[in-house]
Amino acid sequence: MPSDVAQRPRERLHADGPESLADAELLALLLGTGSRCGDAAWQAGQLLGRNGGLHGLARATQAELAAVPGMGPVRSASIVAALELGRRLAMRRLRAGEAVLSPADVHRHFHPRLRDTPHERFVVVLLDGRHRWLRDVVVSQGTLTASLVHPREVFRPALREASAAVILVHNHPSGDPTPSREDVEITARLVRAGELLGVHVLDHVIVAERGYVSLREAGSFPGQS
Predict the structure, then answer these.
(1) How far apart are CA 219 and CA 217, in angstroms?
(2) pLDDT digits (tens, 9 = 90+) for 2-46
(3) Distance CA 104, CA 35 (A)
(4) For the segment 48-74, what is each residue's pLDDT rounded down to a tens digit?
């Protein structure tokens, strides 16, 4: 039989709804049962404590979760799957054929997907001649440098699919979307390469936990007066 500790949040869930429960209680319900190390409430507390709360938990890999005593591959997979479902539900996904009207559209699409990513990811959004969404492609992962974000990798999918324009997107795991000097330099390099290839770079949008910055809106886009 489930312990009283696990029962109490379950009863409150039925009576008052999930918003009445703390993060640890929701996580304990997801785990269902405890392990030889402790009950589900103890296990949930261990997961949150070791990862610095819910946002840290969302950044953890399955291997990192599985390494927590009492977890293992099956229980850690359940946590990863639940977090991914939450991200997908939160996303305001842009669909193929839908026009991208503003950097805010780009942010709403990518924020749930990139905000908890522990490493920088550089994504190129492929657009048609009317700036309608075709698809997005991850072209680099890791600390962004000019060597990692090479024009060849950025524009290869655009040329292959005859994209007329692209939007550059990457995340800042620090939570602060303020562009770095290297962000601006990489953007300038890619804009020049796009001009030579006939692919218009519309913007570079930096996504982070605390919002986003569009280099074009900020006046830091190459060629702006």
Answers:
(1) 5
(2) 444 445 778 888 777 777 888 888 888 888 876 676 788 888 888
(3) 44
(4) 888 888 877 877 888 888 888 888 888
Q: Residue 156 and residue 166: Cα distance in Å, rounded?
A: 12
Q: What residues contact 202, with CB distance under 8 A and at least 6 apart?
A: 127, 131, 165, 166, 167, 216
Dihedral sign of CA atoms 194, 199, 202, 205 in order: negative
Domains of the chain: 4-90 (1.10.150), 103-214 (3.40.140.10)
Give the 3-state secondary structure of residue 69: coil
Q: Are 115 and 173 in contact (CB under 8 A)?
A: no
Distance CA 34, CA 141 (A): 36
Instruction: Write down the pTM of the prediction.
Output: 0.64
Cα angle, residue 221 at apex, residues 217 and 224 outer, rounded to 5°: 90
> How far apart (Å, rounded) are the C-alpha atoms in residues 157 and 151?
11
Specify the DSSP class assigned to residue 38: B
What whole-number distance in Å separates Cα of residue 125 and Cα of residue 136? 4
- The string of pLDDT tens digits covering residues 79-117 is 888 887 777 766 666 677 788 889 999 998 898 888 878
pLDDT in tens, 154-173: 999 999 999 999 999 999 99
CA–CA dist 139, 157 (Å, integer): 9
Structure tokens at 219: 């006046």
Cβ atoms 157, 124 nearer than 8 A:
yes
